[in-house]
């Protein structure tokens, strides 16, 4: 949230070690969402209503510029993972822009499960206001059915559950960290969470515990029944749209009232072993904040790193009109490849040699088609149009590298299917790491035979944005050789068709200040 000159980030944190447990609400503040000041935890277990953990929740700014937090408290360890209730907390001193101290009033908990699943009843959202009531949703499940329960309140203390779920879907499992917010059908500006109107659509997002990915749909808000109705342009479930087709979970969006934008914050856990995490002394990172807005088609969201990130750009390298033939690997020299921002626009000479899209692939689980194809058609497998893109965090002799690349397929109806892959398989010689291949299709018209890609490279993470943020993939990787000054960045083409680097800009990135 934003309050009195600072962006406030609250996050799930274990102060006692680099493994899950002892969860508190850690608290950091920032002027720009890039450089952060770490403060003491805002909420820690201390009362009967949160004795065994202060789990996730949300902040809402009430009228009069008064922030309030609603969070999940664990009152008993059984049934696993814990008996869950919803509590609220308010600042001890509203005049403190840092909001260092929070009070948990004695009338907590304010929402208790009655007929709901007590061990799957968590993660309340930011509240929105209409028809005289504040409204929040809470994630849950019944058997394998995912559920978002709606609660209403006039005073933010006494809450009543709505007769019907806000949204529900069978066979999706527990809905963690639900999120609901409006997006404008005109332009890229964000909207306050309570916004209604004719030029507005709505995003409903859930983090599926069973798959560990974040899924969303675009739909409408039925005010009469107070429920969400997903549109028919994408699947509502495991095969649906994702914010990020890689290592990205438990995200949260908020409205930035200063710059009138909707910001998305996401978490990337480690792909290393817990013993390695303990040795490092930390586990889990927040990815670079993203601005999100509705694609002009109205069918999906676009995401792009916030522009404040560009203040970390240092040394720059520029290339233009460079042809990459089949088998070529061109090093991007003159930048710190281990900490870089690289943006490129490719031109494809011809689409004639695009590989046929194999009909057998339709038998893959629909939610994993792209990932599966990236796994069997890696960067070293020659193709027609592609693979082409970046080799990030590469060692000098390519014993280690993390490729981020496009492949273009021709479908039976003579159309083209563009695939973006981020493949951690060759990223490290360490055999203990989880090194998945991630993939996502890119909804793009290839009439002009152009594709764009931006990757943020930062030691153990590569965040990649295709076609202005239509498809995003984040990978966690742990090279043993391609570290510090021994990391390299290359552009490559392993397809028959010539690819031209129309324009490439790469920057060394300075280190953000974290106190």
Automatic annotation (TrEMBL):
Residues 1-305 form the Glycosyl hydrolase family 32 N-terminal domain. GO terms for biological process: carbohydrate metabolic process. SMART domains: Glyco_32. Keywords: Glycosidase, Hydrolase. Residues 308-508 form the Glycosyl hydrolase family 32 C-terminal domain. It comes from the Eukaryota. GO terms for molecular function: hydrolase activity, hydrolyzing O-glycosyl compounds. PANTHER family: BETA-FRUCTOFURANOSIDASE, INSOLUBLE ISOENZYME CWINV1-RELATED (PTHR31953). Belongs to the glycosyl hydrolase 32 family. This is Beta-fructofuranosidase.
